[in-house]
Amino acid sequence: MQPKPSPYLAAAAGLGALALVNDVLLHPYAISTAIAIVLYILVLVLAYLGGRSARRQDARPGWVGAAIGAVFGLIAGLSSFLIRATTRDIVPAKGLSRLKLLALANSPEAHVAAVATAVLTFGIIALIIGWIGGLTAKAGDLDAKRPDSA
């Protein structure tokens, strides 16, 4: 049986787009943190369900979970390119060092590092959650429930 493309990847892309909009539009407000936490939990649930689905199709549940996390992290991480840090965001430094930190925070290298960190972080965490989801499902379980499988 050939594994089918996972609808969980499309859902992860949708959640990533919501995280991107949340970061860009609601960045200065406290509700942004609560929304982000809910989105992160939903991505982990998707990774768990994707791992279960992959195991039933005799695919690799950890890799499916990692793909879900990486897609979410890539799209959500793009918000770093759309948000500019200000001097209010850099609290501990004073004077010239504050301006240097501000320039570093708004540099392209910092934005690329933020995206790479988001992809790796969500990919690794979702890999573990997808693997756990795969442990809770039986291989080939999907075929056993179909009436037309003989």
Write up what this structure looks like.
The chain has 150 residues and is mainly alpha-helical. The protein has one domain (7-139). The chain is 72% helix and 0% strand. It contains seven helices and no strands. Helix 1 runs antiparallel to helix 2 (31-56), helix 1 (7-25) packs parallel to helix 3 and helix 2 (31-56) runs antiparallel to helix 3. The longest helix is centred in the C-terminal third of the chain and has 28 residues, at 108-135. The chain is elongated and about 65 Å long. The model has no long low-confidence stretch (mean pLDDT 85).
Task: Please supply descriptive tags for the structure shown above.
150 residues; mainly alpha; 7 helices; elongated
Write the layout of secondary structure elements.
Elements: H1 7-25, H2 31-56, H3 61-77, H4 79-82, H5 96-105, H6 108-135, H7 141-144
Helix pairs in contact: 1-2, 1-3, 2-3, 2-6, 3-6
What is the 3D form?
Answer: elongated
Integer count of domains: 1
Helix content: over 70%
Instruction: State the separation between the terminal residues, measured CA to CA.
Output: 13 Å
User: What is the number of helices?
Assistant: 7
Elements, N to C (H/E): HHHHHHH
The whole-number mean of residue pLDDT values reads 85
Structural class comes to mainly alpha
Q: Uncertain segments of ≥5 residues (pLDDT<50)?
A: none
**What is the alpha-carbon Rg in Å?**
19 Å
Number of strands: 0
Largest β sheet strand count, sense and barrel closure: none
Strand content: under 5%
